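Q: What would this complex look like in 3D?
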Amino acid sequence: MKLIILENYSQASEWAAKYIRNRIVHALLWVILFQLASVLCVLLPGLPRDHPESYHSFMWNNFFKHIDISPENVHILDGNAPDLQAECDAFEEKIKAAGGIELFVGGIGPDGHIAFNEPGSSLVSRTRVKTLAMDTILANARFFDGDLSKVPTMALTVGVGTVMDAREVMILITGAHKAFALYKAIEDGVNHMWTVSAFQQHPNTVFVCDEDATLELKVKTVKYFKGLMMVHNKLVEPLYSMKEMGAERSQSKKPYSD
Amino acid sequence: MPSNKSVSDAPIVQFTNCRILRDHQLQREDLWVREGKILNPEKLFFDEKGSADVQLDCKDSIIAPGFIDVQINGGFGVDFSLATDDFKSGVDLVSQKILSHGVTSFCPTLVTSPPSVYHQVLPQISVRNGGAHGAGVLGAHLEGPFISKEKKGAHPEHCLRTFEEGAFQDLLATYGSLDCVQIVTLAPEMRRSSEVIRELTKRGICVSLGHSVANLSQAEEAVQHGATFITHLFNAMLPFHHRDPGIVGLLTSDKIPDVKIPAGRRVFYGMISDGIHTNPAALRIAHRAHPKGLVLVTDAIAGMGLAPGRHTLGQQVVEIDGLNTYIAGTKTLSGSVATMDACVRHFQEATGCSVETALEAASLHPAQLLGIEHKKGTLNYDSDADFLMLNDSLCVQATYIAGEEVWRQDVSGM
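A: Here is my prediction, written as structure tokens for the whole assembly.
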């Protein structure tokens, strides 16, 4: 594991963004984005695509509209699909067809969940329908005007096993409210009550966090990884090929050349 | 890149590097256009999995909805109140020339004229979409002849009429046809005006109060019966008086609970902000009293766009001297030679209002007045892609109608 500790939220975000950029350029990646969790509600109809709190709206406004990505390369689990388990199975197939996930990027919940794999989720689970924990529902209520009855209670999510199959995993953790989860994830044992701890058994994991998120870690741990920052920062330096090409926009299907 | 569009194969244009006027604010967003309408890019992305065919860099321009001029009597030598056999080519000329002022839709206006003029001219006016040929025609604005003698302004007295005999039938006989009429300006103190206002409103025609000596209660009654506009506020009406505000008092009528104006009915008012028709202080007072009702109009006459000198305005001769236009030999103002973009700039300077407010006074508000804001006057998804590119000084750089560029500023001047 690499633990990258930055001073605050903005710096942590920027470091992660540069890292991803470098990975895309270096690995000649055609970016195919698998949006890995999508929320639905079983008792009420699934969140419509254009609901302002849908993942679609969030991803459009915060990501897709700012970049050049072909919509055919975007896959989001459809919470309104008629057969939800079939939708989940098809998603796993699409990942396989694309050659597997090169890089998984995600955050964690205060309860240590990765995607919507709530405490108690199997560490070998696959993409499936999952009931949400009350903690998660409460956390999401702010997007629904505080009305708990409007918050979806189920979600489609990739499983812990699905993410473990990715060749590299990056987890972003910021804020003091996530500190205990980070401690459980990296200093305690592998435990299905803190599903993100499963990545201790992944060969290639990067945790990017801010100072506040380290509040529950041992000083020794924090000092050790801060000491490695000089080495780790090389991972986000602009690559030689990028300096050559300058800042041209190009279609997302065209791979950058080295 | 091939676009996989399930809805339509028409090319999609993405205007980038711009600030667009949306939801009353300038937002840093791209503008997407397909088949002459503003497109929702999120829907395109997720539902159709489509993407842009063409991307245009707008070099940080402001993109605003095209201006709508609801009171323009002519321009470039063309007088809409002059009955000619080739009236249509006059309309065509003006509609083409005003594209450079940022006007994408307008109401050709006829001043008080004899019935023969209306009978000859009105059938030659047709509502039509704009395009490369010129701005769209929304319908005629008939200013007079049912107006007050005391406030006739530049209108010829011998053509003024009343409708006290036959009310609406008199009006219909005078005009001949109301098919392409969008707005009628009349004086509400005239006998039987309420009936006439109701009839016109029933036919979807906007009734405007102007050239009148009505007091406030007469004006309010007219609004109750359906009037929604005031023609060039302050001009050709009684001045504001603190014990009887007259028509000017309508600016705050929607705030008085005991006045029976239907809820949600907003009274709009036209202002000619050329720096001549109203003192900037008066402009500011009106704007602050009722900012959402202000509609910029040019009231431009045939001499607009031409050198100073003598021109006609219907039955009258008008003399132009700089920005001032008077009935020849008098000091009576008659129309203006202002252009719409100059009015927008002057309005912004005189009131110190935001760029968004100034732009909306010439686009959103006239669209709301005419009840067409679902397709004109905004950059909302699915509305007509009539828009302008402006620089930070609010000078028009390019005009687009239905997504096609119909005018562009000559770059050599820069």
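A: To summarize the key features: The domain at 2-240 of chain A is CATH 3.40.50.1360 (Rossmann fold). The interface with chain B takes residues 49-50, 56-57, 60-61, 64-65, 70-72, 74, 76, 251, 253 of chain A (CB under 8 Å).
Q: Very helpful, thank you.
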